[in-house]
Amino acid sequence: MPPAVPRAVICAVLAAAPSARAPGPDAAATNAPKVSSHAAPQATAATNVVADYDRDAASRDVETVLSGGGLDLLRARGRLRAAPELAAEAVAARLEDPKLSGAQRGRLLAILADLGGAEGATKVFVRAYRGRLAELAGGRQVDEALAIRARLRHLGPARLAVATALAADAELPAEVRAPFVAELVAALPADRAGELVPHLRTADPVLRGALRRATVRRLRADPAFRTVWTDAAQAAMTHGDPKIAPQVLQIHAALPEAPEATVDRAATLARDPDQPFSTRIAAIWLVARHGTHAQRRALVPVVHAAAPTGRPTVAAERLALAALSALSEDDAAAAVRTADLRRAHDPELAAAALRAAPLPPQDALDRARVDPWPAVRAAALSGISGPCSRATVRSLGRIARPPWRGGDPEDVVARAALRALGRCSGHRAFRIVRRILMDDAAPTLRRSDAARVALEAFGAEGRDAVLDALDRTTHPAFTADLVSVLAAAPSATPRLVASVCAVATRPGPAALAARRTLAAHGIAPARCPATR
User: Which long-range contacts does 351-358 make (Cβ < 8 Å, 24+ apart)?
Assistant: First the structure.
């Protein structure tokens, strides 16, 4: 197929060259007096320029475009447009020069835009870009692919063809092909959006992820594209393609909204034990994101399927965990109690069940003392809240204190116990929190957690306790933690300002944290007494 030549170039050639139709004798006689003595040589020269045009001539014209101006530049561009394949080779070679200025690169890209519709030029682009990628290796290939993708946006109609060819090149690494997959999706006409759906079954996770993310971006920005793609995706889901369904569901879950029919279909797939795990988990995510209360409640059977009495599989426990997060608080608590998921074998599922349906205080403390999993012990304590009995407060204090004094060896459990003491409130709970805060032998992380609980749960008493600890400590990291905690104080009392200023005006890593705390209270470090 011959390359398409721009109409302006055709008109220019026709204006300079003799008519292709041979004139009759009368016409020749009539026209002869009107032709100057220089007309025939000029026409012949113009015709020969087009006929004798070769790669060297195209390269010279490219240089003229880069550095020339006026009529020479316009003529050079006209000749390049008239020979798109040679022009494409010359321009592609010149674009590889790293010393090109922005203006020069812009001129070359403008030529590429004019040549974009030529089939031969498209092949040249693919060959040139493919050769450039083959010269590089490792991360440089990815960087070059990103640069080429930016260049493709100036190719006009050739943009899609070049992106498609490079995305389909199996000899290139998937990481290098991924940017061209994204460009293919961006350049595809909206009425062809359905062509993308079958490619969601690709086995390579890098290409599949690139296609999924690019499709989501296009769907969000282009309503016409979204309409065509959604129809094709619904047809694929109806035929039950096991490799396409998870990708379609994930794409719908990433959009601001999803068709109600798609969400209903997802709720059905999530409950179907014959569906692959990837399809069911993606369906649960979609229902959790876009489902109504009734659609989310339809996931309760998924939670029940993980009951420990039924010896569930690992997949069933993972699905139950995802479904549990999609349910409302009341539905989740009821499902946990019905399935007895607080005794689940999977520690993450058991912890989620304990947070959804807390145990009574004494049972929670017993679980926190005997369970082998730290996450489960911490989750058991998360359900304790005030008012708390004296025995409960005392037990929480034992868990929160340093390990060498009988406390839990895991900081995550100690932190949960300290937060439970904060929810218990009361003078007894405060005394335990303050004791841990002021204990120089306790782990720094545990003392910092005690400072946060003291400030958040015990008001002015807690703030004063944090200031007491700040005034007496010499530990740089603990000092930085304490002044950072004081940024959340409800007000900046004179004592707080003086203590934090004392840290801000002395050298050390805690000074930056102190200045941030002062800024959080609207105080400039220059207002500190020592800096006046």
Answer: 351/375, 351/376, 351/378, 351/379, 352/321, 352/324, 352/325, 352/379, 353/324, 354/379, 354/380, 354/382, 354/383, 355/379, 355/382, 355/383, 356/324, 356/329, 356/332, 357/332, 357/333, 358/382, 358/383, 358/384
Contact 517, 500 (CB under 8 A): yes
What single-letter amino acid sits at 523?
I
Q: What percentage of residues in the chain have a pLDDT greater than 70?
A: 88
Average pLDDT of the residues in 430-453: 94
The share of the chain scoring above pLDDT 90, in percent, equals: 58
Burial 375-408 (b: 16+ CB within 10 A, else e): bbbbbbbbbbebebeeebbebbbebbbbeeeebb
| Model pLDDT, residue 248 | 93
**Is pLDDT above 60 for 532?**
no
- Degrees to nearest 5, angle at CA 319 with 378 and 373: 25
466 is written with which tokens? 């944090």
* Nearest C-alpha neighbor of 265 from the set 284, 247, 244, 293: 284
Cis preceding linkage at 387, omega within 30: yes
| CA distance readout (Å), 426 to 119, 386, 492 | 81, 9, 24
The tokens for 250 are 């994930």
Is the Cβ–Cβ distance between 268 and 301 less than 8 Å?
Answer: no
pLDDT of 19 higher than 50 = no
- Residues contacting residue 321 through CB under 8 Å, at least 6 positions apart: 306, 346, 348, 349, 352
Tokens 């689940």 found at: 344
Both structure tokens of 409? 């060896």
CA distance 399 to 177: 54
Contact present, 176 and 140 (Cβ < 8 Å): no
Least Cα distance to 200 among 189, 190, 185, 212 occurs for: 212
Compute the mean pLDDT over every residue in the chain, rounded to the nearest whole number.
85
**Number of Cβ within a 10 Å radius of residue 272:** 12
Q: Which of 71-80, 344-353, 379-388, 406-415 has the lowest mean pLDDT?
A: 71-80
| Structural element, H or E, at residue 487 | none
Beta strands in 254-379 (DSSP E): none
Please give the residue that has the higher pLDDT: either 8 or 529: 529
Question: For the whole model, what pTM was predicted?
Answer: 0.73
Instruction: Report how many helices (DSSP H) and strands (DSSP E) the chain contains, helices first.
Output: 31, 0
Q: Pick the residue with more confidence: 12 or 198?
A: 198
97: helix, strand or coil:
coil
Nearest partner of 466 among 442, 443, 500, judged by Cα: 500
On the question of pLDDT at 49 being above 70, the answer is no
Cα separation, 291 vs 462, in Å, equals: 43
Query: CA angle at residue 283 from 279 to 288, to 5 degrees?
Result: 155
Alpha-carbon distance of 249 to 12, in angstroms, equals 55
What type of residue sits at position 341? L
Q: Which two tokens stand for residue 112?
A: 């590429």
Instruction: Round to whole Å and give the CA distance between 68 and 244.
Output: 54
Tokens 């059977």: give the residue: 301
